[in-house]
Amino acid sequence: MDGDVPLDQPHTSRIYDYFLGGKDNYEADRIAAEEILKAWPDIRVAARVNRQFMHRSTRFLAEAGIRQFLDIGTGIPTEPNLHQIAQQSAPDARVVYVDNDPLVLAHARALMAATAPETVTYIQGDVTDPNSILRAPELGRLLDLNQPVGLSMIALLHFVEADVNKIISTFLDTLAPGSYLAICIITGDFAPEQLAAAQDVYRVRRMPAQIRKRDEVLSWFEGLELVEPGVVPPHRWRVEQADEIPASFDAKINCYCGVGRKP
Questions:
Q1: Which of 6, 31, 91, 112 fits a 20 to 30 Å CA distance from 248?
Q2: 110, 15, 164: which is closest to 122 by C-alpha?
Q3: What distance in Å separates the CA atoms of residue 95 and residue 86, rounded to the nearest whole number?
Q4: 39 has a pLDDT exceeding 50
């Protein structure tokens, strides 16, 4: 498998794994991660908060009746994975994972070997080519696109330099009414100089990176019914006593999240 992975080129999913304390990363990933940590010392905390939002939003969708999930940019599996969270509330939930890192594929194969194939599968694909994902035979085998789907794009879109509005519209135009979109993304609104420096580390090492503003994130939910409390930092999304979290914490996390329903 290592022959398929450029060991001297860091990858966003392996760097994220490093920030979460994982061991599925290479020296190039760790070197890049340490450079990012110099620019953004709290990024490990942000990664954990982002992961917690994935748990809450997935649980929310399952409790809202969603039984099909399309998780794009899934990254290296970190338990509990999205399908485990969804199936806690809805044992019949089905999940299609998508990522473009071959190392993630290796882990996905191991995951699928230990999981019922009728509930979980994986597609190696790129979010910038939505139609190739939507037309993949593996997706059609597991998901019925005539029924609502929970589309999860967590910690993904800040690594996309293409037209995100067009990408999201392509997915949502295909998905049935009652489907949901869940997003969590890095922003420079709270600590712009710090985030610009972190973005530069990614770009210098030939990884895409695009820091977004709240108005841009809001535009991705146009035509959807935003779930309360709207587009907010992830530690403020449906968290008890969120108002008691100091504003200074927003500048440590530097993320926005949101969930919207297709009417």
A1: 31
A2: 110
A3: 9
A4: yes
What's the CA gap between 32 and 183, in Å, rounded?
A: 25
Tell me the C-alpha distance between 40 and 46, whole Å: 10
| Ramachandran class of 185: left when φ > 0, alpha when ψ lies in -120 to 50, beta otherwise | beta
Tokens coding 224: 């959807």
Task: Quote the tokens at residue 169.
Answer: 């519209």
Q: How does pLDDT run across 219-229, given as a tens digit for each residue? A: 999 999 999 99
pLDDT tens by residue, 193-240: 999 999 999 999 888 999 999 999 999 999 999 999 999 999 999 999
**pLDDT confidence of residue 101:** 79
Longest dimension (CA), the chain: 49
Q: What is the distance between the alpha carbons of residues 222 and 236, in angstroms, rounded to a whole number?
A: 21
Share of the chain above pLDDT 90, in %: 77
Distance of CA 19 to the CA centre of its chain: 15
Nearest-angstrom CA–CA distance, 238 and 229: 7
Count other Cβ atoms within 10 Å, centred on residue 215: 9
Which single residue is written with the structure tokens 């990884």? 207
Q: How far apart are CA 146 and CA 166, in angstroms?
A: 21
Beta bridge partners of 258: 183
Task: Please choose, from the candidates 260, 237, 263, 240, the residue with its C-alpha nearest in 3D space to the C-alpha of residue 250.
Answer: 237
Given a contact cutoff of 8 angstroms between Cβ atoms, the answer to whether 54 and 81 are in contact is no
Asked whether 116 and 54 are in contact (CB, 8 A), the reply is no
pTM summary value: 0.92
User: pLDDT-derived band of residue 2, with 50, 70 and 90 as boundaries?
Assistant: very low
Q: How does DSSP classify residue 157?
A: G
Q: Residue 233: how many CB atoms within 10 A of its CB?
A: 27
